[in-house]
Structures are given as C-alpha cells and as structure tokens.
Amino acid sequence: MSPAAPRTVVETAALVRSGELAAREAVAEALARIAELDGDLGAFVHIDADGALARAREIDESVARGDDPGPLAGVPLGVKELHAVAGWPFAMGSALHADRIAGHTSTLVARAVAAGAIPIGATASPEFGRASFTASALHGVTRNPWNRDLTPGGSSGGSAAAVAAGMVPVATGTDGAGSLRIPASYCGLVGFKGTYGRVPRGPYHWGTAENDHYGVLTRTVRDTARLLDCVCGSDEYDRSSLPAPSEPFEDALRPAGLRGLRVAWTPDLGNAPCDPEVAAVVEAAAEKFIAGAGVRRVPADLRLEAACGAAYRTLSVPDVHSELRAAPPGRLGSVHPTVRGYGDAAAALDADALVDAHQTRARLVAALAEAFDRFDLLLTPATQVPAFPAEGPMPAEIAGRPVDHWGALAVTFPFNLSGHPAVSVPAGRAGGAPVGLQIVGRRHADALVLAAAAAVEAVLS
C-alpha cells in the first residue's frame, strides 16, 4: 500500500494564515483520518480531541482579528509519548508508568504550539524508546502504513506511522541511536537529527549519556526546516542547548550552494554488514544526487572501531537505570527483557568501563574530525536492513553475518555518540518498504545537511 499524501506543514500553515482553511477544519480532518486508519496501525496511544479543537478555535479567532498565529498556524501535531505534554498520559511506553500524567510540557512541544501548531495526541514508542521497532506490553504493536506486516521502525515508530499514513503532517521524535532516522527510512519520510543540542530537550530531561537528540518527522525537507526554525534556540532548562542559527534553516535550502563539495559514500562505515539490496538501492540514489547536485565524489576511507557499540551501551545504561531504580521489585517482570538487560548492566557498571567508554567516544570524535578534513558530506544507508516484522525482534543476522542488538544501528548510533548532524531522506524501496539515504555533516553544519537533503529530494522526485 502507498500511503496518502495530504497537505504538508507549509501548505497547511499558508492556508490557515490566509483564512482559506480554518484550523478547526485541519484538526477535524486529522481526527477523521486517525479514526479511519489507526485501528490497524497503532500509531497513537492518546488523542486529545477536545484540547485540539479548543486550540483550533483560538487560532481561527486570531486569524479573524487580522493577527498572524505563526508559521505553524493550524498544523496538527503528533507528539511522541517520550515528550511530555501537561495533562496528557506520560507512560513512555512502559507499564511501570501506565497511570502517570505529565505535569509539564516539553520545550520542543511548547515552542511548536507558540508558533501555531495544534497537538492532536501522543504517538507510540517502545518502552523508554529502547528498540528499533515499536511494540510494547502497554500499547501493543505499531505497523508500517506501506506494509502492515512490517515495522515502521523505532523508537519514533508511532510518529513515523502517523505522518506516513497522512494522519498528521508532522510529529515529534527522539533519536538516541537512530530513532528518527530509522523510522524515516522505513516510512519514506524525512528524519533529521541535528547537531547535539540543536533542538533543546528541556525541561527536566535527566539523561546522562548525552546521546539523545530531539526532532521531528515530516514528509518534506522544507517542512522539517520550518519546524526547526520554530523550535531551535537556547533553553535555560537544557545546558547543552545551542543558540538559534543566524540564518533560518528554511532560507538555507539552496541546492546550488552544494556545487563542488566533496561527498563520500560508504555502505558500512568500514565494518558494519549491510543488506545487498539496501546497499544497491541507496547507492543508486547517492549517485543520482552526486550527478544532479554537481558535487564531487571522493573516497570515504573510514573505518570506525568496533568498540563504539560497547561504549554506547555503557554510556546508556545509567539513563535506563534512572527509569527502573524506583520501580517496586514485583513490577520489573513487566519490563521488556532488553530494558531489563540495561538494568542488569547498571548493577555491574564500574569506573573503568565508564572511562573506557568516554575514551572510545573521544577517539570516535577525533576519527570523524579527521575524516571531515577529507570530505564535506558523508553518505550511508540510514539503516543496513530492510524493514522487518512489526512484532520484532530486531535482526540477528545481516548479509549472512550474525549481529547483536546494535547490528541494525551500526550506521546511525556513532553519530549520536559524536553529536554530528544527520538526516534520512527517501531513497527508494527495499524488501517491501521504503529505505533512506543518510547524509552526515560536520558538527554545526546542520544547514548544509538539510540543503543536501533538499537536493536529494529534488533529484529523486
């Protein structure tokens, strides 16, 4: 099945700001599509119809007064359940928090609302976002609108399914190891992970690994740029947050500015197995981009060390432990075995392991700094395997090689460790669902990465 293509973010906002479309109509359309389609997709875990319609009325009244409600005016917004919205359930996909209600709103959501967006409901995540497929004991299985037997990816799978099915034009997501880029890849969307700190994570984000990035999933690069321009900028609640760029991202989508840049392609970052069909489809898209954008292909000459996976896991263990440590012992049986594994690892964590992990991260950052002296953009698949069954598990083998939990994340999580900007943009289809091309740039070269994504979009459209 090929999902429907409703209005984009930019189209919806333009119509609402001009008075040609009432915000309440946009919301009603979104609610109707959710009612029609979500029964067998499982994208949403909570719907706030009353709140959305009330917000829409406020926007319509603003337009009627001659005011401008903002660059996201009337845009229905899905919110990943890892992002708090005051008064909404805040379970984070876990039965441990099934009854919890959020007492605050994420800065990302609050800034989108201030720009005119209308939160519709919460989208599904695996428990605490710790899987690349979206299923949980609390909410069940989320399915891919392109093929309901397959996963939309994870952990932002509910958001990806909602946007791909046309229920909403945009939904928030998180990316701790690929959780924006992998769902974007499997659902034919744009999933951008900015430089670490580009999208603020406040208030009350207590992660210690410094791998988590916030962002959105959309149908177009311009829609992503529009959202970024509304939500980026320093936040006193997030010590890692970066100032807003001097030029709006939406204004920086100039493919002509790419001409002559050095671009490298690698299917595997030097040591990761990659499904041959995925590699062929994505490399063909990369070649079309290189030819169409006038960039220059150069060798990648890059091999990331295998220790990065162990380092990532070590640095992530405390974050999961923070969610589990207060749980009554009798309740831990409801926790997914992968999540429990993090808890077990926390009990065995020592100072040597932490030091080794930080040193591995430092070597990775140095290796990438040297690599970006040789090229300006790095192209890879956004994941090395086609979409797999919706119920999971994650692949245990890729291209005939056995892999662990990190096998299908081997081309995404290194850029969470390093903090580099990376985007997945649709490249074609493999194995019954879409597959994405990942574009990685130097740290803080977010605008360049988005401009390249826009060029890929133009070349392949």
From TrEMBL:
InterPro entries the record matches: Amidase, Amidase_CS, Amidase_dom, AS_sf
Domain Amidase span(s) in chain numbering: 25-450
One Pfam family, short name: Amidase
SUPFAM superfamilies: Amidase signature (AS) enzymes
Family named by the database record: Belongs to the amidase family.
Name by which UniProt lists this protein: Amidase
Organism: Actinomadura rugatobispora
